[in-house]
Specification:
The protein is mostly helical. The chain has nine helices and two strands. It has a two-stranded antiparallel sheet. A hairpin with a 6-residue loop joins β1 and β2.
Length: 334
C-alpha cells in the first residue's frame, strides 16, 4: 500500500492511478528521476570543480615552491660571494698585518716617536732606547734644514726667472741639494765628534761610552726638530717680490730667528752633554765646554772657506749678477 501524494488516500502499490482522485503516479516518478538526475549532475559538477580547484592549488603550490627555491638559491649565492669577498679582504689584511717586516717597522716607528715625546717632556732624563734612534733624529733635522734652504733658493730663483729685467735662472739641481744636505750633516758631525773627544780627553778616570753619549746628545737636540719645522714653514713665507728691502727683511727675519734658535739648541746641548758625561774633569767643565765651542766654530770657518765655496760655485752665474743688481736696486732707495 502507498498513499496518494494528491489526496492522501491508500492505494495499491502497483496502481498507476489513485482510485479516489485519479492522480497519475507516473508524474511523481518522472519528477523524482529529474530531481535525482539534477542532483547527480550537481554532484558531478561539484566534484569536477573541486578537482579543478585542487589541481590549481597544487600547481600554485608547486610554482610558489619553485620560486622560493630559486630565491633561496640566489640569496645563498649572494651570501657566498659576499662571504668570499670578505674572507679575501680579511686574508689580505691579515697577510699585511702578519708580515714580520711590517710589524717590526710599525713597532720601531712607535718606539721612536714615543722616545722623542719623552725627550721633549724631560730632556735630562736618560731613556734607554735603540742606539740608532739618535741617528734618525739627526738625519731628520738635517733634512728639515736642507728643505728650508732649498725652498728659499728655489723661490728666489723662480722669482729671478720670472723677472723681465734679468736673465732667466733655473732652479737648483739635485746635485746642489744633495751637497747642501751633506754639508748640514758635516756641520752636525762637528758638534758630535768635538763633544765626544772633549768628554774622552777631559775625563781622568771613567770614560763615557759612545752609545750613551749619542743618546744623551740626541735627547737634548730633539727640540731642534720642532725648531727646524718652524724654520721650513717660515721659509715658505719669504717674499722676494717685496717693493723695498724693509718688506723683504720683514718676511725673512723669521728664517733668521729660527735658524739662530736651532743653532743655539745645539750649542746648549753640547755644553750640557759635556757637563753630564765628564765625571772627573781634568780642568773645569766650563772651560771644557768653551774649548769645544771654539773648536766647533773654527771647523765651521774652515768648512766655509773650503766646502761652501764649491757649493756657491754650483749656483748659476746669473744668480750672482741678479744678487748684485738686486742689492744696487735696494741700495738706491736709501
Amino acid at each position: 500500500m502507498k498513499k496518494c501524494p494528491n489526496c492522501g488516500a491508500d492505494v495499491a502499490t502497483t496502481a498507476k492511478f489513485c482510485t479516489h482522485c485519479g492522480y497519475q503516479f507516473s508524474q511523481v516518478t518522472s519528477t523524482s528521476a529529474a530531481t535525482s538526475a539534477a542532483s547527480t549532475t550537481d554532484s558531478q559538477t561539484s566534484s569536477v570543480s573541486s578537482s579543478a580547484t585542487a589541481t590549481s592549488n597544487v600547481a600554485t603550490s608547486q610554482t610558489a615552491s619553485q620560486t622560493s627555491q630559486a630565491t633561496t638559491q640566489t640569496t645563498s649565492q649572494a651570501n657566498t660571494t659576499q662571504s668570499n669577498a670578505s674572507r679575501s679582504t680579511t686574508t689580505n689584511a691579515s697577510r699585511v698585518t702578519s708580515n714580520p717586516q711590517v710589524q717590526q717597522l710599525q713597532a720601531t716607528a712607535k718606539n721612536y716617536f714615543s722616545w722623542v715625546l719623552d725627550s721633549w717632556k724631560n730632556p735630562g732624563l736618560e731613556i734607554k732606547t735603540e742606539s740608532y734612534f739618535s741617528y734618525i733624529s739627526f738625519v731628520i733635522e738635517a733634512l728639515l734644514i736642507t728643505l728650508a734652504g732649498v725652498t728659499i733658493s728655489n723661490r728666489f730663483l723662480t722669482m729671478a726667472g720670472s723677472s723681465q729685467s734679468y736673465v732667466e735662472v733655473n732652479k737648483l739641481p739635485f746635485s746642489t741639494d744633495l751637497a747642501l744636505f751633506i754639508t748640514v750633516l758635516i756641520g752636525m758631525c762637528f758638534y758630535i765628534v768635538v763633544g765626544y773627544v772633549t768628554c774622552l780627553l777631559g775625563s781622568r778616570q771613567s770614560k763615557v761610552s759612545y752609545s750613551v753619549y749619542m743618546n744623551r746628545f740626541a735627547q737634548l737636540t730633539n727640540y731642534a726638530i720642532i725648531v727646524n719645522v718652524l724654520l721650513w714653514l717660515s721659509a715658505l713665507l719669504v717674499n722676494f717680490h717685496a717693493s723695498s728691502f724693509t718688506d723683504f727683511f720683514a718676511s725673512f727675519k723669521w728664517v733668521l730667528i729660527f735658524f739662530t734658535i736651532g743653532t743655539f739648541v745645539w750649542q746648549v746641548a753640547l755644553v750640557f752633554v759635556i757637563n753630564k758625561s765628564v765625571s772627573h774633569p781634568v780642568i773645569s767643565r766650563v772651560y771644557l765646554a768653551l774649548i769645544a765651542i771654539l773648536v766647533v766654530a773654527l771647523l765651521f770657518y774652515l768648512m766655509d772657506k773650503i766646502a761652501l765655496n764649491g757649493l756657491r760655485a754650483a749656483l748659476p752665474s746669473q744668480l750672482e749678477n741678479f744678487i748684485g743688481e738686486l742689492t744696487n736696486a735696494f741700495g738706491s732707495q736709501y
